[in-house]
Amino acid sequence: xxxxxxxxxxxxxxxxxxLLKSGPFEGRIAVIAEIIxxxxxxxxxxxTGVPRxxxxxxxxxxxxxxLASLPRAAGTGVIRKQLxxxxxxxxxxxxxxxxxxxxxxxRRSLTDFERFTVMLAKKVRRDQVRKTLAKASA
Length: 138
Fold this sequence. Notes:
The model has no long low-confidence stretch (mean pLDDT 94). The chain is an alpha+beta fold. The protein has helices at 76-86, 88-94, 96-108, 112-137, and strands spanning 16-20, 29-35, 40-45, 50-56, 60-66. The chain has a 5-stranded antiparallel β-sheet, with helices on one face. The termini are far apart. It is 41% helix and 23% strand.
């Protein structure tokens, strides 16, 4: 039987950068430092303010980023150096996933008047686009 390529691209592994889905550090990223068992891992986020702790997989989301040469049970200092060396936090901040999360949180924090102002700006923009298209097609 020929070996088929796996449909899965992100695996739970030491060095995998994860996004926290719940708890006081929700929305921050951390790195898997050690795998405890099939339910939990030790994570650490020295540059994002996430302390080293045991965390269940069901409250983590795996990102496409991996710290390649991170040894098992690496300490906070080693993880910090590796993150800074590879620029992982900057890569995350530039990713479309992080930018969408930021846009959604910004939209959720708008007041009623700010939503009204956005609606008026969209109306003005829509009218300008309509007039420009009408002029171009005429």
